[in-house]
């Protein structure tokens, strides 16, 4: 006698009508039936820990019947917000600005049809920082592999930004300049993030200019960035005259 392996669920009957009848009698098992059978099995033979895990997983499933009248509640809430805004004489833009006050993202332009229109550069980059951004070398790197390699070696631009240099290869010149400014701003933020939380600036030995060179940032860009993310500590200056300690906020 020889035993042959057989796959579960596969009918090996040679009679087509018999096979069809068996399939019809057995019927397809739905997902709900499998879950119910699994729960019954766990309730009967599973450990206490396994039963707790299964119960927690079932309670975490969000089902339509558990939501209740969520759509109606949301509609009532939006209607109430619109009524309050109308009573206070607020415009649509003012309502949007108020809603984004607690978010890190700036308010967006409601009538915009593209990301560039929704978030103008003036809302993403502080004016004094934007005025100090220099995009010439980055634009040159997008056109020349040699210039790109120079930026990598000199570390004038953060590596993560150079990996996205392909974003500047676009026929739309205005779009390219906008992206270049955003990328240079990102590079400056990443360069500053890599710095130590506390920066000791020796005023007699180059001061901020030396710090800017060590961070691969131009001095007029470093100062407004430090204003955003650091504050000056007087503790070290009292102990060591001529040394200014800048601490991250």
Plain-language structure description:
Belongs to the eukaryotic RPA49/POLR1E RNA polymerase subunit family. Residues 1-33 are annotated as: Disordered. With 249 residues, the chain is mostly helical. Among the domains are: 125-192; 196-248. Helix content is 61%, strand content 6%. The protein has 16 helices and 3 strands. The protein has helices spanning 16-26, 31-45, 48-60, 64-67, 70-88, 92-99, 115-118, 121-124, 127-132, 136-143, 145-154, 159-162, 173-193, 207-214, 219-229, 235-239, and strands at 198-202, 230-233, 243-248. A 3-stranded antiparallel β-sheet has the order 1-3-2. Helix 10 (136-143) crosses helix 11. The termini are far apart. Residues 22-28 and 235-243 have low confidence and may be disordered.
List keywords for this structure.
249 residues, mainly alpha, 16 helices, 3 strands, 3-stranded antiparallel beta sheet, extended
Assembly state here? single chain
Q: Name the helix and strand elements from N-terminus to C-terminus, one letter apiece.
A: HHHHHHHHHHHHHEHHEHE
Number of helices: 16
What's the gyration radius in Å? 32 Å
Strand ordering within the main sheet: 1-3-2
Distance between the termini: 81 Å
| Count of extended strands | 3
| Broad shape | extended
Mean pLDDT: 76
Strand content: 5-15%
Major sheet attributes: 3 strands, antiparallel
GO molecular function: DNA binding
Family: Belongs to the eukaryotic RPA49/POLR1E RNA polymerase subunit family.
Subcellular location: Nucleus, Nucleolus
InterPro entries: RNA_pol-assoc_fac_A49-like
